Backbone:
């Protein structure tokens, strides 16, 4: 069943008997038939009005019926439906193949503005942004110190798919962040020459970002055409290992790849979102996801061979020490970070007053597996606890903060080994 967790124990199943190549199957009709719980993401209890959503999506020859989905009108209609369903502030597209259809897309979405790359190759990158929250500052095709041959352009500078940069102010709930987004569509295929192009392009881009955007809020996203934990080219390391190994960057979608998700039809995870450390505290850990497009009929043949990949941020209000003293924090429990994690993670919580506190961890069967704070008297303010799950199996766990006066908050976290 799409969108639900596998049962952790024996359950009674109600379903429909079916047969596949001679093998009998029992297919549940819904999550209720097997008592499964719907998957919940960290931050699902936070309204989208309070968060900043970012999407990368390769829309497979958008507008070119001769190469991608063969019904342009249906593809356009489906893309609009997905955009409205996710309702993000920023979309980074790859494979916009028809400028007229992109203009039609913008005309159909009055609340959005758009930017289309100007390189001569038919498959272009683009941004779509929500005007009410995004103030466009500048955009450009980045070519400084970049080599066209590494960016799927051969020796033709105008043909190369250089990164499309979009500089903007994002304002969410009165908090504004200046952000630089870099949208890429890296060289495809698993041959050694294509791999080398991705490898060198990754190094060129990182050098550019390190030199010119060292202290900026940066999002590097798009169709990487390769994985972050290895490579589609046999025997090679990830061409993006330079980003993975640098603590100043976080490939936030790597967790999806490690858990076996696919970002496109042939099963690999090659569409990614990477951020700089300046945005790490405002990224809601665990919100990275592959959009479940089952609300679109025959999605892979009618819309795209890639799925939208997206995540969420919540901008924190910067307050002074004087303000903190005058306005004590409320009783609250943060989402653990990192999440998913292996094997340790940090759990933070806040107390409005001195309190006697217990912090416990449970498995999904309700069995206590760890006590991190045991009925201890804690002062008002913020507290951090490190949880080491080295002796536990991969899976979903709950952590619960409670006080002696009856306050209680429970959240979930994912251990992936």
Residues:
């Amino acid at each position: 069943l799409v969108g639900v967790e596998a049962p952790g124990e024996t359950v009674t199943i109600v379903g429909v008997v079916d047969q596949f190549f001679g093998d009998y199957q029992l297919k549940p009709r819904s999550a209720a038939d097997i008592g499964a719980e719907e998957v919940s993401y960290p931050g699902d209890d936070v309204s989208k009005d309070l968060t900043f959503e970012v999407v990368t999506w390769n829309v497979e020859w958008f507008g070119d019926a001769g190469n991608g989905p063969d019904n342009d009108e249906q593809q356009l209609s489906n893309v609009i439906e997905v955009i409205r369903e996710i309702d993000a502030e920023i979309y980074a597209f790859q494979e916009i193949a028809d400028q007229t259809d992109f203009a039609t897309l913008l005309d159909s979405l009055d609340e959005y503005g758009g930017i289309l790359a100007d390189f001569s190759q038919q498959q272009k990158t683009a941004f779509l942004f929500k005007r009410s929250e995004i103030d466009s500052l500048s955009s450009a095709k980045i070519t400084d110190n970049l080599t066209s041959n590494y960016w799927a352009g051969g020796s033709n500078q105008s043909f190369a798919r250089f990164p499309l940069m979009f500089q903007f102010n994002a304002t969410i709930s009165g908090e504004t962040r200046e952000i630089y987004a870099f949208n890429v569509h890296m060289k495809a295929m698993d041959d050694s020459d294509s791999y080398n192009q991705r490898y060198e392009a990754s190094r060129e881009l990182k050098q550019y970002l390190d030199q010119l955007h060292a202290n900026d809020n940066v999002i590097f996203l798009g169709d990487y055409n390769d994985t972050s934990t290895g490579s589609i080219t046999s025997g090679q390391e990830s061409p993006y290992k330079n980003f993975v190994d640098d603590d100043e960057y976080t490939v936030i979608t790597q967790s999806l790849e490690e858990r076996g998700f696919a970002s496109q039809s042939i099963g690999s995870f090659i569409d990614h979102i990477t951020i700089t450390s300046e945005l790490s505290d405002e990224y809601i850990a665990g919100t990275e996801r592959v959009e479940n497009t089952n609300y679109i009929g025959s999605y892979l043949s009618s819309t795209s061979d890639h799925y939208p990949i997206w995540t969420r941020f919540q901008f924190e209000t910067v307050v002074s020490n004087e303000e903190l003293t005058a306005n004590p924090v409320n009783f609250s429990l943060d989402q653990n970070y990192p999440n998913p994690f292996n094997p340790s993670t940090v759990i933070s919580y806040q107390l409005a007053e001195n309190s006697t506190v217990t912090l416990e961890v449970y498995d999904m069967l309700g069995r206590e597996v760890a006590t991190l704070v045991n009925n201890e008297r804690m002062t008002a303010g913020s507290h951090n606890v490190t949880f080491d799950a080295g002796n536990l199996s991969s899976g979903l766990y709950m952590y619960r903060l409670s006080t002696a006066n009856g306050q209680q908050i429970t959240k979930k976290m994912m251990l992936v080994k």
Q: What stands out?
A: Residues 362 and 368 are 4 Å apart (CA to CA). The two ends are 23 Å apart (CA to CA). Helices lie at 72-86, 99-108, 192-212, 241-244, 254-258, 299-302, 321-326. Confidence is low (pLDDT under 50) at residues 323-327.
